[in-house]
Each structure stands twice: as structure tokens, then as C-alpha cells.
């Protein structure tokens, strides 16, 4: 009999790839979304709609599905999201509602994966950031994710919870409000001008397909009570990325720094350690950033 996995946020960028990953591994996939259109998730999954802040609705869905595994991806993932109240309500209270519903159900999952964020590290001084690096969140989004982690620890004696801290990742279908899709879109359209914020940032970028593969393996390994960075372990400066795009396209737009895009709470350097992740699940597929950017350039989406 196939195992049932519930994926929250299934109609989001990561959720769609996570659903495809679990379907490919033979799972029965149930997707939870907030007022999602019926064609927003990959077939053949069972799509259900419920607001994370609706505790009663969540409990009814959990009792109906009785999931064997849960991947919690739903939440506000855009750092510059303007509604601070919604950030905390969704990322913190919504996650608590989900855990309460899972705990109250008589059928407890074998493994629950909660997606936090590497943004909780803020401007860490470590060259390579490990999971023991002291958090220093620099924006409300990061604070909401760190608060979610602390809240989840209250449930770890009752539920098999694993927390992941993904670093930056990208791929086909990610919103152009994020940095790399925005850059790819401008080069694809051969736009004459590209306006960016701080050009000196360094980020650890992964391919979304690598990320969901790591999530699945962590879910199956079930290292309950532990926290893992999910990253490539390699940093790329924005200048490097622009050069890769010039080489891939032959296009050389004018690069302008728009002060409106420069964040006061900008995290300047964020590169993660993969050591703990690889000890838990072994070596994982890493797709070079240039291949990811090429994939995004060639996609009609």
C-alpha cells in the first residue's frame, strides 16, 4: 500500500516540485493550499483547500487524510513582503495550528518536515555557516521563521519533527519578484537595462530539484528532532551570476543600482555547510548554477 504524504503550500513554487518528487517515488500525494485553483497542482494529487489559521478546518482535513508523512512548505517566503502581521500569523500561528491538528489525530505521521529558512542566521560572521551558528535574524520574515523553530520544539516529544533551513534556491516557475528569476527574465527578453539592489551580496544558490530531493530523503530517514541546512555549500556573488548570464546569452544590459532595491537589513553573505545533511542522507545530487540558469533561460514559462 502506498504511503500518504501531505504537502502544505502545494500550489507554490517549491510545493509543485515537492509533489512531483513524491509522486515519482511512489507516494500518494495530498496537497493543501489556500484557495487554490483546481489546476494549480500536478496530477494525480488530491488537492484540498484550507487556511492555516483555520484550526478546525485543518483538524478535519488531517482526520480525513491520516497522512503518513507531512511536508510543511506553506507560508510567506518573500523577505520584503509588506504585511508584517500576515508574516507572523501564517509562518508562526499557522504552523502551530498544523502541529496541533497532527498531534490531536489518532494516526501520527512517521515524519514531519518543517521548512524554516537560512535567513535566520542573518549577517553571521562565519565563513561557512553550520547549524550551530548563533541565529541573528535581520528582518521580520527571518524572525518569524526562528520563532516557528522555537515553537516547534515544544511539540518534538509528541511528534516526529525535522526542521530544514534552506538557503537560496531557484528554478523554472519561481516568481520574478525573486532575484535570479528577475535577472533571467531580463536577459531572456534582452532588456537594455537591469535595475538591481546591492551588487556585493554573496549567496549559496541551489536548484529546486536538488532541494526537494534532499527533503524527500530527510523525510524517509526521519532524523527526528534535528535541524539541517539544505544548501550547495558554494557561494556566488551577484557579479558572478551576471557574468554567467552574459556568457549564456551574449547579452550585455546596462546594470543600474536602484536605491529603492537596497534593503537596510540586507544579509550580505550567506553560505551554508552541507556536512550534517550529508551525514544524515549521504551525498545528494547537486546541479551546477550555470545549468540551472540555462534551464530557466530555455523554459517557455
Describe the structure.
By secondary structure, the protein is an alpha/beta fold. The protein has one domain: 3-Layer(aba) Sandwich (Rossmann fold), CATH 3.40.50.720. It is 37% helix and 17% strand. It is built from nine helices and 14 strands. The strands form four sheets. The chain has a seven-stranded parallel sheet with strand order 3-2-1-4-5-6-11, with helices on both faces. Strands 12-9-14 form a three-stranded mixed sheet. Helix 1 packs across helix 6 and helix 3 runs parallel beside helix 4. The longest helix is centred in the N-terminal third of the chain and has 21 residues. The radius of gyration is 19 Å and the shape is globular. The mean pLDDT is 92.
Major β-sheet annotation: 7 strands, parallel
Sheet with the most strands: spatial strand order: 3-2-1-4-5-6-11
Instruction: Report the CATH superfamily.
Output: NAD(P)-binding Rossmann-like Domain
Strand elements, count: 14
**Helical proportion, percent range:** 25-40%
Q: What structural class do you assign from the helix and strand content?
A: alpha/beta
Rounded mean pLDDT is 92
The number of helices is 9
N-end to C-end Cα span = 36 Å
> Which CATH C-level class is it?
Alpha Beta
Tally the structural domains: 1
Order of helices and strands: EHEEHEHEHEEHEEEHEEHEEHH
Overall shape: it is: globular
Radius of gyration: 19 Å
CATH architecture type: 3-Layer(aba) Sandwich
Strand % is: 15-25%
CATH topology: Rossmann fold
- Flag low-confidence runs: none
Amino acid at each position: 500500500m502506498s504511503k500518504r504524504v501531505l504537502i502544505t503550500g502545494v500550489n507554490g513554487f517549491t510545493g509543485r516540485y515537492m509533489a512531483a518528487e513524491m509522486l515519482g517515488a511512489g507516494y500518494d500525494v495530498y496537497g493543501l493550499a489556500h484557495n487554490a485553483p483546481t489546476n494549480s497542482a500536478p496530477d494525480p494529487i488530491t488537492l484540498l483547500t484550507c487556511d492555516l489559521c483555520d484550526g478546525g478546518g485543518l483538524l478535519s482535513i488531517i482526520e480525513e487524510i491520516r497522512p503518513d508523512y507531512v511536508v510543511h512548505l506553506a507560508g510567506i517566503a518573500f523577505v520584503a513582503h509588506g504585511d508584517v502581521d500576515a508574516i507572523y500569523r501564517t509562518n508562526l500561528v499557522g504552523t502551530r495550528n498544523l502541529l496541533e491538528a497532527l498531534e490531536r489525530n489518532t494516526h501520527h505521521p512517521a515524519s514531519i518536515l518543517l521548512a524554516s529558512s537560512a535567513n535566520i542566521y542573518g549577517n553571521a560572521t562565519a565563513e561557512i555557516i553550520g547549524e550551530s551558528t548563533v541565529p541573528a535574524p535581520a528582518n521580520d520574515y527571518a524572525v518569524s521563521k526562528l520563532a516557528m523553530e522555537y515553537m516547534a520544539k515544544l511539540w518534538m516529544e509528541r511528534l516526529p519533527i525535522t526542521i530544514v533551513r534552506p538557503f537560496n534556491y531557484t528554478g523554472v516557475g519561481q516568481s520574478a519578484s525573486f532575484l535570479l528569476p528577475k535577472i533571467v527574465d531580463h536577459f531572456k527578453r534582452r532588456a537594455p537595462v537591469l535595475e538591481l539592489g546591492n551588487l556585493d551580496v554573496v549567496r549559496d544558490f541551489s536548484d529546486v530539484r536538488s532541494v526537494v530531493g534532499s527533503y524527500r530523503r530527510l523525510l524517509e530517514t526521519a532524523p527526528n528532532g534535528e535541524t539541517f541546512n539544505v544548501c550547495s555549500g558554494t557561494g556566488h556573488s551577484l557579479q558572478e551570476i551576471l557574468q554567467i548570464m552574459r556568457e549564456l546569452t551574449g547579452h550585455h544590459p546596462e546594470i543600474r543600482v536602484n536605491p529603492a532595491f537596497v534593503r537596510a537589513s540586507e544579509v550580505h553573505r550567506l553560505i551554508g555547510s552541507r556536512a550534517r545533511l550529508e551525514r544524515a542522507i549521504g551525498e545528494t545530487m547537486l546541479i551546477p548554477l550555470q545549468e540551472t540558469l540555462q534551464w530557466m533561460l530555455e523554459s517557455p514559462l
